[in-house]
């Protein structure tokens, strides 16, 4: 059984020299947003209120009852990437160096210890290497936690019969064009034929609504006619603005604000096929995918952090504030058919999304299939997000 090695004593003073700006801009009313590897450039941390402070693990709701071993397995996946970075490199280039999260070198000793730690010793490991940090009180009222999942759809490798909706790979030279600031076509223009779907398609789906929600979630599994499964992962986005069609339907009076969820949006689209395309086209953003081959069915999709996601332990965050690979404790609730239940879990930032904007904003990955989709679609909870940072970085 792996032991738990402690951090070196002494070390430098806290690296906390600036605080996060309070600039929460939540994305409409969507309850689920997909992964997105090409988020906007990081915003520099700004001076702010002095409400960021260290707390004890006993202050975290439900810490003693949580299964930290599950979070440790997820953290180890991120550590494999962190250990390849230079000590002075930022944990995440989108977030930048310094501040509360320091540099990769601040995390690498804990990561090396994590790789040799047994899940049964996970709680002791986290308590020895990390300190919980509470964000400024004025950010907590704006906390919002949603969910996403990996949908399972029907598809074909060829276009025929009902299989008329293509899932496209990026066009040649896509990455270079994005860096050069090329303006790409809108969703409506792409679906009208701006790209050669017969040449760029990975698979063809039998339901355009499924394709739309695949774009929102950012990954998926497609069951072919012969029973085989094709795994799809995010490969890029056009850079066109993301629009929550849930908000569009609310503004039109089609769905009451209190009733909006992935399920009610889908039901409306499928009940109004004559209007569905026009509504979906309101979201100009278009996602390209890549095929994942040789991946175990037991593994989750690959997030923006380039590691497989873990149900209930991986979250998408706003990389302007939080780097991929960092640790968080989430105190909130999640929906069940019988009512909301507490969700107090240690989680790892391993993904991001176009609508995940704000300091106290997280999107929880709930897994694959219809059951995970039900929870993700109804998840829209408040609560509090805490950071866990290496002890030498604690304020």
How would you describe the overall organization of this protein?
The chain is built from 11 helices and 14 strands. It is an alpha+beta fold and 395 residues long. The strands form 2 sheets. It has an 8-stranded mixed sheet, sandwiched between helices. A hairpin with a 6-residue loop joins strand 11 and strand 12 (341-351).
What is the number of E strands?
A: 14
CATH architecture label of the largest domain = Beta Barrel
3D shape: globular
For the largest beta-sheet, the strand count, sense and barrel status come to:
8 strands, mixed
How are helices and strands ordered from N to C?
EHHHEEEEHHHEHEEHHHEEEEEHE
